[in-house]
């Protein structure tokens, strides 16, 4: 697992899925198979559909260009948001912990800032993307 991908930073580096070249789209297409039952896309490593748990068929069908773009947009728009939310929860936990034990000290504030700043940036960024509809 790639950390950059996990944090959604890949999507930040190239946020506009529309700008993918045909070659890149093709590379993304073959990373997924389309469930014959529910039509959802699952990554090639998955032996079962993530949604309906149908087994991966013998003759897999890769998604169409439109389907892969839709899926990429959907996942690209939610990853930074959840990462931001996660960091925000972390900042709040540090705050609560600090205030319960001995009051908030400079040390705590630095830590809170370390989580809070990227958290807010990610959340604002994903909200902005949502509004723009990309
Ligand atoms: Zn399915």
Distance between the amino and carboxyl termini? 25 Å
Which blocks of ≥5 consecutive residues have pLDDT under 50? none
Query: H/E order of the elements?
Result: HHHEEHH
Largest sheet, spatial ordering of strands: 1-2
Separate helix tally:
5
Q: How many separate domains make up the residues?
A: 2
Give the bound compounds.
zinc ion
Shape descriptor reads: elongated
Structural features, described:
- With about 130 residues, the chain is mainly alpha-helical.
- It folds into two domains: about 10-75, no CATH class; about 80-130, no CATH class.
- The chain contains five helices and two strands; from the N terminus they run αααββαα.
- The protein has helices at about 5, 10-15, 20-30, 65-100, 105-130; strands at about 30-35, 40-45.
- It has a two-stranded antiparallel ribbon.
- Strand 1 (about 30-35) and strand 2 (about 40-45) form a beta hairpin.
- Helix 4 (about 65-100) packs antiparallel against helix 5 (about 105-130).
- The radius of gyration is 19 Å and the shape is elongated.
- The model has no long low-confidence stretch (mean pLDDT about 85).
- Bound molecules: zinc ion.
- The site of zinc ion has 8 residues, from loops.
